Here is the input.
Amino acid sequence: MLEVKDLYKTYKYANVKIHAVNDVSFNIRTGDIVSIFGRSGSGKTTLLNLIGTLDRPDSGEIIINGKNTREVSGSKLAAFRRSNIGFVFQYFNLIPYLTAIENVALPLKFDGVARSERNRRAKEVLEEIGLSKRLDFKLAGLSGGQVQRVAFARAIIAKPRIVLADEPTGQLDSKTAENLAETIVNLNKKSNITFIITTHDPVISSIANKIIYFEDGKIQKKE
Amino acid sequence: MDIIFDAFRNLCRRKFRTLLAVSGVAVGIFAFLVMGAMAEHFRRISVQFEYLFENRIFICERLSFWAGGGILSEAKLKKVKEIPGIEEAIPMLISRWSDERMVVVGLPRVVVGLPLENIKSIIGRFRVISGNLALNDKESVIVGYDLAQENKLSTGSKVKIGNEDFIVSGILEKTGGLYDGQMFIRLSEAQKAFHRKDLITSIMLIPSPRVDPEKLSVEIKNRVKGIEVIPPSRIKSQIRSSLSLWNGLTFGAAFTACVAGALCVIIIMLVSVSERAVEIGLKRAIGAATSHIMLEFLSEAVMVTVSGWFIGSIAGWFFICILTRWLHSMGSNLFDLTPRLFVTALVGVVALGLLSGLYPALRAASIEPAEALKVRY
Here is the structure.
């Protein structure tokens, strides 16, 4: 499903080279929940951005569902992301002036889906994750946990093969984090979506069937 | 529909800034419409001038300004008529209708005295909307369209010219030019009304067929002293040069409007791109293609310029209506607000929106999602 081979990514700040991802290789099967566990600054977000095609590696290969991401560029890249990858970002990154339903429906809009169909599907997904009473709420009217669940709803609405979540519980208390972990497990069971989650939260790691320990841009250990 | 709705919502989120940008474009459109309406007015008059004076020679007193002021005696007319190659020599007495206002804006309202037998040669190319072109009675007057409208005249109405009363016998159709503000009476009656017995202000010559009007003009000038002979080529060149001036002014107004409008749009759109970098990065990350982002910003830019066009058009139309009313009350007109001005302005603002929105849209589309998403909302 996902194959990462000999991946390197180096940044240069003030003439100092930082090896954010340094010779990383691993495989992930369809339906896995994978936790990339590591401290802040260990290169987890960079790895996720590379897998999500938001950034380009210096060398190495990322093969998603048989397609090498190096071969996808330009306008095809946006379509590739839409159909294969869903994102949940560290700081939620919902658009604050849109309502929950509009945020969730956004990826479908870029796919050219009609407004009524978008809204119907977004409503369906929000109901599934228990937010049916918050459809027309904007970011300011939602709690941290609700916002993060909206972000997950947006990530899965286009039925991607992989959802990449960057520290999804970083801004949540432990109880809300547990609820979110439960939501992830339910979504995984129901639609067999692969989840790759960077975290340093043991709650999230506990639901993963594969854990990759990451430090200084390198894999230290796989479980 | 999605694009229009989104553009509208984004612009409404920054009301004051949008209002400023729309105002900038609106002021430009206002200036363009006002200048354009004046240019249209003079273009119409010029076109009619060219049509009416095609192959015709105009004679006036040497020191007079066009038909105003100078006086010719009918003896001069006799001398001119003796020159071979003239099919028709039409003496005219042209005078301002009212002496109440010494200064007028635009073309003054005038009375034209014509010999009965020449009426058709001068105004016969136009139809009457009521009455006839005959001037059957001594007191008959044919009135131009605008003059009739301004003074609420209809066939049978009384009009005072000089100290004499005249009866409207015909009203000309709208010609869009000179004749709309004129009245036509018999030459003898005009001479009586303005106390100019045996005097005229100008002569209109129609050359015989196959006679070169330019050569005929030179010959008249050589043989009759103390008159100004204006050949068709001079009339045409004067019309063309005044038209060029007006076209230049309109082009200048349009250009200024474009520059001012484009600057307004570019500035607000660039600010908007900077402010919305995270949002753009997010949209790109979740599947927005370059074309989606560009379209979003281009549609906002076009919406700003089209809104500016709408407001500027209403303001321009309102301003011109008020000014035209005032000018009509003074017996004059200066504007022709034609539909093509609005259409030209609309096409212009759409193009302006696309051009001025292009650079900000390209900037937005070039935002790297990974970089943009490092910033926290």
